[in-house]
Amino acid sequence: MSDSNPEGFGVQSRRTFFKSVGTAAVTAATANAKSVAAELEKANAEKLVGPGAISVTLKVNNQPLHLQLEPRVTLLDALRNYSSLTGAKEGCDRASCGACTVLFDGKPIYGCQKLAIEAQGHDITTVEGLEQSGELSDIQKAFIEKDALMCGYCTPGFLMSLTGLFEANPHPTADEIRHACAGNICRCGTQPHIMQAALQVAGTPIASKTEVIHG
Amino acid sequence: MASWPTETKYISHSTLRIDAPAKVTGRARYASDIQAEGWLYGMILRSKWAAAKITAINLEKALKIPGIKAAVTVRDGEMTARYYGEELAAVAGATKQACLDALRAIEVTATPLPHVVHETEGLKEDSPRVWAEKANASPGRQTDKGDVDAAFPECDAVIEGFYTTPVQIHHPMETHGNTVSWTDEGVTAWASTQGISSVRDGLAGGLQLEQSQVRVITEYMGGGFGAKFGPGVEGLLAARLSKAAKAPVRLMLTRFDQSLAVGNRPSSFQKIKLGAKSDGTLHAFQLENYGTAGIGGGGSSEGGGGGVNFPAPYIYKVPNVRVRHTDVAVNAGSARAFRAPGNPPASFGMESAMDDLAVKLGMDPLELRLKNDPNKTRQHEYKVGAERFGWKQKYQKPGASPGPIKTGIGCAGANWGGGGNKRTQGEAQINPDGSIELRMGVQDLGTGTRTVIAVVAAEMLGLAPDQITVKVGDTRFPPGPGSGGSTTCASVAPTVYSVCQEALQQLQMQSGIADARGSNWFDACKKLGATPITVHGKWEQGLSSSGAGGVQFAEVAVDTETGLVTVKKIVGAHDCGLIVNQITLESQINGGIIIGMGYALYEERVMDGFSGVVINPNLETYKLPGLADIPEIELILVNMPERGVIGIGEPATIPTAAAIGNAVANAIGVRVSSLPITPAKVLAALDQVPSPIAMIP
After folding, report:
1. What share of chain A is helix, strand, coil (3-state, %, to 5)?
2. Does any CB of chain B come closer than 8 Å to the CB of residue A208?
3. For a 10 Å CB count at each end of chain A, is N or C smaller?
4. Are B253 and B618 in contact (CB under 8 A)?
C-alpha cells in the first residue's frame, strides 16, 4: 500500500477495482443483494460455462494439452489426474504446502489454487519441463549434488519456486532464497541442503560444516 | 566371522542419492501418482461427531451421482463413532468432483453421544467414557527402585516441575493412501508405506485372501515417520471399492483426514521431582505422568510404540526411582509410532528437570550431565560437541543475557536401540554382460535405502555404485523388514554383504577366475555364457550393532517483548557406528533435528472441548518449520567402524526439543515447561500475560 494512495488496497486502488467490476455492479451495490446477483449474472451470461465438462487447452512445458474438464477442475487436478504429468504433487490442496508449485508465465503459483480454465492462454511449466534437451537445469543438478531431497515429495515444488526466483534474480541472497521458499514445506528436513543447493546456483556457495571424528 | 573391509572406496564416503535424478525430474512415481488402467478416485466420509451412535448410513443417493461407481460403508449395521474424523463410508468415482458430490449425498443417521477430548478432563472419573466397559484413565503402571520416600530427605537439592508435551501429528508430505486393484487374480496395492510386508499381510488378513494373492508395490513414497505401517482403514476401503467397481481405486487421504485419523505422538503431562547431593550426584527421582494416545488408550496403536509410557529417568542412573504412567483415553484419533516413540517426551521432561536442578545446585548443566550420564559415547560427544559449540565461552547464568533480545544455550542427550533385523533377505542376478540387479523387499522412505544397497554392493564387488541396479519396494522380492526403529540400514547392509559374498563365490566358481572383483568382473561374467547367476543372501551377524548415543547443543535468541524464540544454532554429535554413506546420513540427522525443532516451538494438535473437533487440521494452523526457521546446523559424525552399521533416524530427533527448551530457560531465566514454546507461553513465563496453562492441575 502506498502512502500517496490512501484508498488503495493491494496494487489496485478502490477506483480501478470498481472500474474492473463494471459500472452495473457499482450501481447495483447500492441496491439489494438479489439485484446485484441478477446484474452480475446478466453481465456474465455469455461467459458462463459448465457445470459439465468442456474443452480446455493448456500449454504445458511448451506442449499443447487438450483436455475435457469440468470448469471446477483445478490446474493441479488437470495435470495430475487428467494427464500423466504427476510431477507437481498434491500435499494439501489448499495453498499451504507448496508441493504443487508450477510456473505460470514464469512466476511460481500453487497449481491447486488456479482453475484449469483460467490457465488457458498462459505458459505453464512443471518440474517435467525443467530438463532442456536432455540436460538438467542448474538447480536440479545442485539438488542432486547437495542431497537437497529425501522422500522427494516436496522437491518439485521447491524446484519450481527456486526456478522462478533464479529467472527473476540470478544471484539471490540467502534471505531472498528463504523468502522465495516461504510457501514450500518439507517434512523430512531437507532445508539445510536446499539452502546449500540454492546458494551454489546463486554463485555464493557455502561449505558444509560437518566433521567426522573417530569414536 | 564376517567383517567390513577396512580400506574402502565407497563405504564411509559420499555417494549421491541414486534415485535423486528420478525425484528432481518428476519421473519418480509415488503411490499417489499411480494411474492404473481405468482407475477411479476414492474418498472417505468421516464422522463429524466426536462421539455418536451411527444407526444408519444410506448410500443410495451417492450411488446415483454421475460418475460414481461404488460406495461402501466401513461396517454393516450400527456402529459407534469414537472420534471426529473416524471413517464411516467411502465412495469411488471417475473424478474427484463426482466423489466430493457423492460424499455430500450420503445420509447418516446418528445420535450424538457425550465426548471428552482433553487428557485432564479424561482423568476425571465422571468423564464421558470413550469405551463403555472401562474408565478413561488406566489404573497406571508403577515401577519402583530403591526407596524414594527415604531418599528425597537425604538430598541437598530437590526440584519439582510439571513438564508437558503436546500431541504431535506426523504430517508426511504425501498423505496416507493406496491405489488398489482387486481382480480375480488377487489384489495389487501401490502403497505409500513404510512396510510393504505388513501392508500385504494386513490386506490379506482384512480381505480374507491368501498372502500369495496380495502384491504390494512401493517404488516411491512421500514420508512416513512411523505412521505408515499397515494398510489402514483407507487401504481396506480402497480394496473393497475396487472389487465393487471392478476397477483400480486410488484412495489418498486429504490433509484434513491426515490430521485426524492416521496417528500421532501421544501427549505427556509429567510431574517430576528430582533430587541430588550437593556435588550433583543424582539421588532420587519421581515421575507421575499421564497422557493420551487417543481412543486407543495406549493399547492398540498401529505400528507399535504408540503408548504414553516412556523410559524414565531416561538416560540417567538414579538409585531411587518411582515412575507411574497413566493412559487416558479420549475421543481422538489413535496414536501410532512416531520417530523415536516415547523418547522425545522422555528427553524433554528429564532434561528440563536436569537443568532446573543445575540452577538450584548452582552448577553448569553440562557438568551435571557429565557427572551423571553413564554412557561413554555420550561423555565423549558432550566433550567434543561442547568444544565445537563454544559452550564455555557462551555459557552465562540463566537470564544474564542483557537487553530485550536474550540469548541462551542448552544441551540434551539421546539414547536409542535399533539394530539389524535378522530375517532380512535379498537376492542378486548377475548377467553375462556384467550388469547386476539387487532385489530386496524393503522400501526407501527417503532415508537413502536404495543408495545404501548400491554403496555396499559396489564396495563388495569392486564396482561403482552406478553399476548396481537396485530394486526395492515389491513383495515379490525376498522379504525385508518394515522401516521402523532405525533398523533398516543395519538390516540391509549386512544382507547386501552376504548376497555379494554369495555372488562372488558362485561367479568365481563358474568362471574359474579366482578373484572376480573389480577389473576381473566383466571377464568373469562373460564366462557365464548365456545363463545369468541368481544368488540369495540372508542378514549376517557381526556387521551391525544396536545402541546409539547422541547429544545436541542449541543456541537461541528470545525476544522478551514479543515472546518469539529463534533458534540460532544446533550442534549435533551423534554416534554413527560404521558410516555407510555420509551425505545421506547428514540428511537424516538434519531431518531429525528439524522435526525436533517443530516439536519444540510450533507443533501441537489443538482440540476444542465443546465440539470435540480438531481445530487445526491443516498446515496453515498446524505449523511446521519452514526454510526461514532453520538455524545453522553443525554435525559431528562419530564414526565407529568397529561397531558395524547402526541406525540414526530416531536418535537424531530425540534431544532437540529438550536442548532448545533448556536454551530458552537459560536465556530468559525462567522455565517454559510446556511444548510447544510459543510466544504466548514465553510471555506468560515472563509474567507479561496470564498463563495459558494455568488451569491444568
Report:
1. 40, 15, 40
2. yes
3. N
4. no
Q: What is residue A30's predicted lDDT score, i.e. its pLDDT?
A: 52
One-letter-per-residue 3-state SS of B205-231: HHHCCCHHHEEEECCECCCCCCCCCCC
B438/B429 Cα distance (integer angstroms): 7
Q: Rounded to 5 degrees, what are φ and ψ at B161?
A: -145, 160
Give the chain A residue nearest B589 (alpha carbons): A189
Q: Does residue B535 sit in helix, strand or coil?
A: strand
In chain B, what residues touch A99 (CB-CB under 8 Å)? 173
Instruction: Say whether the ipTM exceeds 0.95.
Output: yes
The CA distance from B386 to B380, in Å, is 10
Type of residue numbered B502 = E
- The CA angle B265-B83-B170, to the nearest 5 degrees, is 25
Q: What is the CA radius of gyration of chain A?
A: 22
| B388 CB within 8 Å of a chain A CB | yes
Q: Which residues contact B640 (CB under 8 A, 6 or more apart)?
A: A214, A215, B575, B576, B577, B578
B540-556 pLDDT tens trace: 999 999 999 999 999 99
What residues form DSSP beta bridges with B427? B439, B536
Q: Report chain B residues whose CB lies below 8 A from the CB of A93.
A: 254-255
Q: Could you say which residues from 116 to 155 on chain A have a Cβ atom under 8 Å away from some Cβ of chain B?
A: 126-128, 130-131, 136, 140, 143-145, 147, 149-155
Does A164 score more than 70 pLDDT? Answer: yes
Amino acid present at A123: D
What is the full DSSP assignment across B55-86?
EEEE-HHHHTSTTEEEEEESSSS-EEE-STT-
Condensed to tens digits (0 to 9), the pLDDT of residues A43-95 reads 766 677 878 899 999 999 999 999 999 999 999 999 999 999 999 999 999 99
- Give A-chain residues touching B175 at CB under 8 angstroms: 91
Q: What is the mean pLDDT of chain B?
A: 95
Please state whether beta strands A101-104 and A123-125 pair in parallel, antiparallel, or not at all (unpaired).
antiparallel
B301: confidence class by pLDDT, cuts 50, 70, 90: very low
Mean pLDDT value of segment B242-259: 98
The Cα A44–Cα A21 span in angstroms is: 11
